[in-house]
Prior knowledge:
Elements: H1 16-20, H2 24-34, H3 36-49, H4 56-71, H5 78-88, H6 90-114, H7 123-153, H8 158-171, H9 173-192, H10 198-224
Amino acid sequence: MSIFPNYNKEGKGVTKADVSGETSLKRFFTEFLHRFWQLILLNLLYILACVPIITIGPATAAMNYVCRNFSQGKPVFFFTDFIEKCKEHFKQGFLVGLIQLVCGALLAGSFFSWTDEALNVSGGFRTAAVVVLFVFAYLLFFASFYIYPMMVSFDLTVKQLIRNSVILAMTQLWRNVVMFLVFALLVVLTFLFWPLTFPVVLFLAFSVMAFVSNSLVFPVLTRYVASPDAPESEETVSEEEQAE
Length: 244
C-alpha cells in the first residue's frame, strides 16, 4: 500500500452522499447524535482499558476502530469489537505507543535543555534548535491522529504506519488545524473549569476526540493509503461509500 494516489485509476464517481444530498458536516452531526450514548460508554471502556499502562496503545487503536465505524455509519458492536481489536492490534499498538512515549520524552527533555539559560550557546543557534524541536513536536502530535486509524484499517508494518502518518501530518494542514482546535478547546475548557469538567473527561473527552479525528482522517486514508486494487472487505471501504 502506498501513501501516493494512483492517477491511472478511474475516478470515484458519484457517492451515496452526493445522491442523497447529505453533506459531510450533516453526516457528522447525524452520526454523532445517533452514537452519543455509545460514545459515553466507549469513553468509560477506554479509560478502564488504559489502567494497565502497557495497554494504552492497543486500547487507543481499538477506540479508533470503533469511532471509525461510528463516523462512517457502519455497524459495530462497540464492546466486543473494542476487546477484539485491542487483542488483534496489541503488538503494534504497544510498539507505536512506546515510540510515541519515548519520542515525547526526548523532545520534552531537549526543549528544556535548549531553553535553559545556563546553556552556553549563542542566541541564534538556540532559537534554531528550538524551532527544529517544535517541528518534530508538530509531526509527532499530528501523526498520532493518523497512525491509529491507519493501523486498524490496513495491513501495514510499524515502519509503514510511521512513514505514512508523518507524510499525512505534513500535507493535510487544514484537517490538522481543525483537529488541533477541537483538542485545544477540550484541554482549555477542562483546565479552566476544573473540577466541574471532570465528568466531561470521564464520559466524553477521549471518544469525542477520536470520533472527530476519524471523521476527518478516514476519507484521506481511503484515498491515499488504500490499495486501488484491493477488494472490498470489512476493513476497506468501497469507492461508492467514500464521502468527504
